[in-house]
Description:
N-terminal domain of MutM-like DNA repair proteins; Helicase, Ruva Protein, domain 3; 2 domains; 6 helices; about 25% strand
Amino acid sequence: MPELPEVEVVKKSLEEKIKNLTIKRVFVNNNKLRYKIDNKSFSKIIGSKIISVKRRSKYLLINLNQNLTILAHLGMTGKFLIFNKKKKHKTSFYYSLKNNDTKHDHITFFFNKRFKLIYNDVRKFGFIKLFESQSIYECNHLKFLGPEPLTKDFNKSYISNYILKKKVKIKDLLMNQKFIAGLGNIYCNEILFLCKINPNRIVTKINKKELFNIVKFTKKILKKSILQGGSSIKNFTSADGQNGNFQQVFNVYNREKRKCKTKTCLGIIKKIYTLGRSSFFCPKCQK
């Protein structure tokens, strides 16, 4: 599933291509995604202009000039495809798009200037909904999200107050979207490696310096991944068809039984499962 950096890359790609375009027509080929697409409500956006594309956590918000916002989540295999005349710009995560993959095109937005935007989703875990812009952040998808990790709201004091008297593993806490928005399994593993913290450590056992490092390395890793276009686990590309490169510098994720990258360490990366999710770490470096 795409995490914050990958969704941020898609957001930037979409905004570059569709901002200021006007929706001329909407065609729903298959409305059975995670949530059923409301055909009637999407007829309201015909004639609307795209004024911005934003991201909140792992969600995309396509804002229209008629006080309407399209909220999209890519799920496991969701992708947006932009067509400009004969040119196709691909935005995908995990799965490449094949020529005969049109049966998974669920909704198409037709714009002026001969542009069209297609949402394609093989496994149909993603969704697209329409909300009034003024109340978008009060919907159940966004209302309970924690702070964005790249903002000043995510800091050492915030973590200290949040974990007070909590007995939860640090990996599980970082994965909790109510605590911090946008992190997923990949980046939680990488953050904890740089912090030298075992994913099973109880949060009450983490000292002040380690809390500072969690904030520091969370911001550092996310910024670096965004600059490198995200992580291509199988086939993630931006709207320009550029592969993400961050997976080339993974320290622990998906490196089970391989040598730790810390120069002075002789440890071997271990894989365990917590709450059904895989955790990769070095048992010698991460205590």
